[in-house]
Amino acid sequence: MYSKKKDYILDPMVGSGTTLIEAKLLNRNALGVDINPEAVELSNNALKFDFKTDCKQKAIVGNAKKMPNIKDNSIDLIVTHPPYLNIVKYSDGKIEEDLSSSGGMVKFLNDIEIISKELFRVLKPNKFCAILIGDTRKRQHYVPISHYLMERFLKTGFILKEEIIKAQHNCSYSNRWAWKAKKYKFYLIMHEHLFIFRKPNKNENTSIFPWSKYRVK
Ligand SMILES: C[S@@+](CC[C@H](N)C(=O)[O-])C[C@H]1O[C@@H](n2cnc3c(N)ncnc32)[C@H](O)[C@@H]1O
What we know:
The protein is of the alpha/beta class. The chain has one domain: Vaccinia Virus protein VP39 (Rossmann fold, 3-Layer(aba) Sandwich). 27% of the residues lie in helices and 25% in strands. The protein is built from 5 helices and 9 strands, in the order βαβαββαβββαβαβ. Strands 3-2-1-4-5-9-8 form a 7-stranded mixed beta sheet, sandwiched between helices. The chain has a two-stranded antiparallel sheet with strand order 6-7. A hairpin with a 2-residue loop joins strand 6 and strand 7. The protein is globular and about 55 Å long. The protein starts with 7 loop residues before the first strand and ends in a 19-residue tail after the last strand. The model has no long low-confidence stretch (mean pLDDT 93). The structure holds S-adenosylmethionine (SAM). S-adenosylmethionine binds next to strand 2.
């Protein structure tokens, strides 16, 4: 819905390459970036299946905070899925710039803000940036990582087009949490947030969307 055939799609935290596989199946060009060389190898291997396409998809090693080989205003759609703080570690702390090795929430959100600025730079005006992100629980209380992330993207200048809730049943983490939830009386988290942000046009009057802009002073 947010892209068309032959468009250029970017996933700056590509992991095992789902975005690239779907881009191949939908005949889009796509670049995947990941800080972890193992993820890049996994993604490039996952692309080795027979399917007739005249577009290119590939993954490269890089840092989503700075992608100097991608020109300003050149990408038609960004689709990505950052780590949820350090809930799942993607490199066992061995790669310093891996967001999942970050030293806590403040550092994680500051890195997310830097990434949101880089994504704003490379995306074409009036195009979309989709971010899938989940929340967590600490000391039996809810930690809305997604809300904090959304604020950083709004602060950068994106405006919010959609918030889509992705129901998440039968998650492999559920068993680990189920007994705690019962004992301490809290609910299991069974959803993730898919934010669809739009980069405004150059001279667009965004004051007509005051509810979807950054409001915290
Ligand atoms: C939730 S996973 C992505 C999963 C992906 N959607 C898939 O299809 O497998 C997050 C990824 O972000 C990567 N990552 C973490 N910090 C990064 C950074 N600074 N720049 C680029 N990639 C990063 C991790 O290595 C990991 O592969």
